[in-house]
């Protein structure tokens, strides 16, 4: 269970600085110092400094120079770095390099010199135009570092820029970079901005806002806060506790509770929370963690919870975790419980856990689910998985089953269940 691409970790500038030090003895990029524009050449402005554009041959032309100790990888001014090119053109060229060390060294040298939001915005636009885009390696990392630097200079401006990013994925990644950095620098200010502006982060441009989705920005802040101020993180998440976004964050918060305060305190904190989707999610995560070391205790704890979705999810996680270690004991425990809506999810999870070792037993367990629709869906899903694992045995069973002819044909179709569990 995870919040996001959660828990996804983006590279930060500090890690890249180490690479730049290594690059010191290997090579760097060179651009000539600014010179007066000769006739016919085009002058342009970079951060208020007039520079000159000139034609070059090849992507690497004029960019290589061994470091001789007189020029460090991170020491020149921006005009000295870009020489007779615009900042955008220079960045576009270095981002197109295949040599990771050259690209990293050159980019960090530029990054060090950027001092204003305007300069950083120009650099960001150059990254966008580099052709690599988000999620395609180098450019996403460089975009991330630029946003983090902007946040250190002008956090609200960086956040507004991220909020206007085109596309939900791009906006999510940009907001995550900015808000995690801002939360580290000034958590209360970051949280205040997120509470006031964050709903828009989960909405595509021009689309109607889905109120049930919740405040994505607050979730990002709370996720970062959980590592340094868990109580504030819990309070922040509690302001939107019935949204889908906060329900997904529950895994993260429960894990931090468990790590920072131990099992007993985590359980006490979760049970003291008001009923909500957030609490349900945290109950399930706690049961899952407990089941990894003590399946019987996890299942017993889940049965003591108040009836409802939280109890059902926690019981399912406990039984599934227990079944990984001792499926016979977990099955005996589940068999001792009368079939009910509370145990339906646990029966489904148990059936999936034992499918690889006992497909017929798994299908029998699916038959004990009380909800007719869930029983049918789970049974068919298990059969499709069995067909993929052992087509001959599964086909024999399906043909002898009481399924309708239409269902048999669907289950045994080569495309049956493609993309499903």
Would you write up a description of this structure?
This protein is mainly alpha-helical and 421 residues long. Helix content is 62%, strand content 3%. The protein is built from 21 helices and four strands. The strands form two sheets. It has a two-stranded antiparallel ribbon with strand order 1-4. The protein has a two-stranded antiparallel sheet with strand order 2-3. The longest helix is centred in the middle third of the chain and has 29 residues, at 244-272. The radius of gyration is 28 Å and the shape is globular.
Which key phrases capture this entry?
421 residues, mainly alpha, two-stranded antiparallel sheet, 3% strand
Using the alpha-carbon principal axes, give the shape: globular
In this structure, how is the largest beta sheet organized? 2 strands, antiparallel
* C-alpha termini separation: 16 Å
Radius of gyration: 28 Å
Number of helices: 21
Q: Strand order of the main beta sheet, please?
A: 1-4
Write the layout of secondary structure elements.
Blueprint: H1 13-23, E1 28-29, E2 42-46, E3 49-53, E4 64-65, H2 78-82, H3 87-95, H4 100-113, H5 117-128, H6 138-153, H7 155-163, H8 168-185, H9 187-197, H10 216-225, H11 230-238, H12 244-272, H13 277-291, H14 295-303, H15 309-325, H16 327-335, H17 341-354, H18 359-366, H19 372-389, H20 391-400, H21 405-412
Helix pairs in contact: 1-4, 3-5, 5-6, 6-7, 6-8, 7-8, 8-9, 8-10, 9-10, 10-11, 10-12, 11-12, 12-13, 13-14, 13-15, 14-15, 15-16, 15-17, 16-17, 17-18, 17-19, 18-19, 19-20
């Amino acid at each position: 269970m995870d919040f996001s691409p959660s828990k996804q970790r983006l590279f930060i500038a500090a890690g890249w600085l180490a690479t730049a030090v290594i690059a010191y003895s290997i090579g760097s990029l060179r651009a000539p110092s600014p010179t007066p524009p000769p006739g016919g050449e085009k002058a342009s402005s970079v951060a208020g400094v007039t520079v000159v554009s000139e034609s070059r041959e090849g992507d690497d032309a004029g960019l290589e120079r061994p470091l001789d100790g007189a020029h460090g990888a991170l020491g020149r001014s921006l005009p000295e770095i870009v020489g007779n090119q615009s900042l955008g053109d220079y960045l576009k060229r270095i981002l197109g390099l295949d040599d990771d060390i050259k690209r990293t060294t050159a980019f960090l040298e530029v990054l060090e010199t950027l001092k204003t939001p305007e300069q950083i915005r120009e650099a960001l636009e150059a990254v966008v135009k580099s052709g690599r885009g988000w999620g395609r390696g180098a450019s996403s990392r460089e975009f991330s570092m630029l946003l983090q630097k902007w946040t250190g200079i002008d956090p609200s401006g960086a956040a507004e820029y991220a909020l206007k990013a085109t596309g939900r994925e791009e906006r999510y990644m940009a907001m995550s970079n900015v808000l995690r950095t801002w939360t580290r620098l000034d958590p209360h200010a970051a949280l205040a901005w997120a509470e006031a502006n964050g709903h828009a982060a989960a909405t595509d441009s021009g689309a109607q806002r889905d109120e049930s989705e919740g405040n994505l920005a607050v979730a990002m802040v709370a996720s970062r806060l959980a590592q340094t101020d868990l109580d504030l993180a819990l309070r922040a998440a509690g302001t939107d506790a019935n949204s889908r976004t906060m329900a997904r964050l529950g895994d993260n918060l429960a894990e931090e509770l468990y790590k920072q305060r131990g099992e007993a305190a985590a359980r006490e904190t979760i049970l003291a929370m008001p009923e909500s989707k957030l609490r349900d999610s945290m109950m399930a995560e706690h049961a899952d963690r407990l089941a990894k070391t003590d399946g019987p205790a996890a299942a017993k704890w889940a049965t003591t919870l108040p009836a409802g979705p939280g109890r059902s999810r926690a019981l399912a996680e406990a039984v599934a975790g227990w079944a990984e270690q001792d499926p016979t004991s977990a099955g005996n425990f589940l068999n001792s419980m009368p079939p009910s809506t509370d145990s339906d999810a646990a029966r489904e999870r148990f059936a999936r856990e034992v499918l690889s070792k006992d497909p017929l037993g798994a299908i029998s367990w699916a038959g004990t689910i009380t909800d007719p629709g869930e029983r049918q869906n789970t049974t068919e899903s298990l059969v499709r998985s069995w067909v993929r694992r052992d087509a001959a045995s599964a086909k024999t069973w399906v043909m002898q089953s009481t399924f309708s002819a239409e269902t048999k044909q669907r289950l045994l179709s080569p495309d049956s269940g493609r993309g499903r569990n």
